[in-house]
Amino acid sequence: MIYELYYWPGIQGRGEFVRLALEEAGAKYVDIALVSEQEGGGVPALEKFLESDFVERPPFAPPFLKAGKQLIGQTPNILFFLGERLNLAPRDAAGKLWTNQLQLTISDFVVEIHDTHHPIGSGLYYEEQKPAAKRRSQDFRENRLPKFIGFFERVLKGNSARGPWMVGARLTYADLSMAQVIAGLRYAFPLATRKALQARPRLRALHDAVFERPRIKRYVASVRRVAFNNDDIFRHYSGLDR
Amino acid sequence: MIYELYYWPGIQGRGEFVRLALEEAGAKYVDIALVSEQEGGGVPALEKFLESDFVERPPFAPPFLKAGKQLIGQTPNILFFLGERLNLAPRDAAGKLWTNQLQLTISDFVVEIHDTHHPIGSGLYYEEQKPAAKRRSQDFRENRLPKFIGFFERVLKGNSARGPWMVGARLTYADLSMAQVIAGLRYAFPLATRKALQARPRLRALHDAVFERPRIKRYVASVRRVAFNNDDIFRHYSGLDR
Q1: Where does the pLDDT of residue A53 fall: very low under 50, low under 70, confident under 90, or very high at 90 and above?
Q2: A71 φ, ψ to 5°?
Q3: Per the CB < 8 Å rule, is B121 touching A143?
Q4: N or C: which end of chain B has fewer CB within 10 A?
Q5: Looking at the predicted structure, is the pLDDT value of residue B162 above 90?
Q6: Whole-number Å distance between alpha carbons of B89 and B101
Q7: Which residues of A198-224 are buried (b: 16+ CB within 10 A; e: fewer)?
Q8: Is B97 in Cβ contact with A77 (below 8 Å)?
Q9: pLDDT tens digit sequence for A137-183
């Protein structure tokens, strides 16, 4: 099986959570964002599925994954599917649900991170919503960021299998996503994130354990990894960090 | 099995998506929001799980469901679990994923509906963010609402099993949630929703088909159904509807 990942070119975005799972597992996949339009990749390839009336089960938005004839949308749904196949989720039903629950909480967190710079509308420029972004970011730094970070640290602490991961003794896709969120937060809100992680040794250790894994290291060092940038979910505007 | 549903008292909120599934299936459950604090219900019962260090797999926020010893959080995750048990989801793996994908898209929609009146912060009052709410609502009415509504109508149109439902020929939990969202939108944005649904006969028919089901009718007429109100996700502020 060669998977095809469909996502916007030029940003990590939500596609990155899927890429990290595929890369960690050493799965064969084509990242359509890295394929030129001439060769059938890029934005037109996405739009074919988003706008066509011939897709019976269409995705609402990227990312989506093509696995044979199956087209799967929504990041946590894609990861639920891949977790089983790539051995990045527990085998028992309760463990699968718990991993999914963590991933959904990470997704909620990601929406709130995104909305710090886009509180009024995702179709408007940041420059059109700067005062609102400043207020929302303040609420995020003071309330939401510590709340989410505290929750995930507590999950790590509560995992009776001592180790760096959130679910039992083995790495899951939720750990990969969590590490990616920490990396993104450090890029976007370096000051607030340093403060929020100060008394959170387990989350810092999880981040390091993920980015030290050989396949993840190789991936991050490769041309396949797009750098963090200010067209993405995680954006660094210093005015929003203080 | 008697399920226990934990959610904030006084509002429908995200708990309602779970209630509709339990009610449609005729499942036995205790709605902890309707149990008095003296009898172990209400907010203290929620907080016991949200704040305790003794819960190994804690929920981040309500709703959460207690099923025997299992504690399950995140609305789409609860519904994934219940869908299987209550026969409100397809039996095949691809159908389960597709139903989950629709539910996740409904969840995204619900976040955006909520944020029309709370674009700056969920911990602040609406009155503290009225100008931002007005701008966000305009973007919602003009762009996001038609986009989501158009997507779900297309899903209904694309379902080759002719009938009122989104997935195959049988009712799923995603249909119940979709009908609830339409009811909520009609309460919150009566003008914008009428316009958005004008050329969407399939969504209107889905709404009616859900609310005509005997168990749902009985539930909605009962004291168990909290009325829509302005402390909830769906709020009616006429200034945000035009």
Answers
A1: confident
A2: -115, 120
A3: yes
A4: N
A5: no
A6: 12
A7: eebebbeebbebbbebeebeebeeeee
A8: yes
A9: 999 999 999 999 999 999 999 999 989 999 999 999 999 999 999 99
Token pair in block for residue A15: 């596609």
Q: First-to-last CA distance in chain A?
A: 47
Q: Residue B116: its pLDDT value, please?
A: 97
Does the pLDDT value for residue B54 go beyond 90? no
| Peptide bond between residue B90 and the one before it cis (omega within 30 degrees of 0) | no
3-state secondary structure of B105: helix
Q: Residue B46, CB half-sphere, CA atoms under 13 Å: how many?
A: 20
**CATH number corresponding to A3-85:** 3.40.30.10
Which residue ranges make up each domain of chain A?
Answer: 3-85, 93-213
Residues of A in contact with B161 (CB under 8 A): none
Structure tokens at B76: 């789409």
Q: Is B69 on the interface with A (CB under 8 A)?
A: no
- Could you tell me if B93 and B117 are in contact, meaning their C-beta atoms sit under 8 angstroms apart? no
B151 at A interface, C-beta within 8 A: yes
Architecture (CATH level 2) of domain A93-213: Up-down Bundle (1.20)
What pLDDT was estimated at residue B51?
83
Chain B residues close to A140, C-beta within 8 Å: 121
Q: What's the CA gap between B198 and B173, in Å, rounded?
A: 25
* Amino acid B52: pLDDT: 78
Residues of A in contact with B60 (CB under 8 A): 105, 108, 148, 151
Quote the CA–CA distance of B104 and A170 in Å, as a whole number.
26
State chain A's maximal CA–CA distance in angstroms.
52
- State the DSSP string of A77-97: HHHHHHHHHTT-S-SSHHHHH
Total-model pTM: 0.98
Q: Which helix (H) or strand (E) holds B228?
A: none
Q: Where are the beta strands (DSSP E) in chain B?
A: 3-6, 29-31, 64-67, 70-73
Determine whether the interchain pair A94/B132 forms a contact, defined as Cβ–Cβ distance below 8 Å.
no
- pLDDT computed for residue A7 by the predictor: 98
Mean pLDDT within A183-206: 98
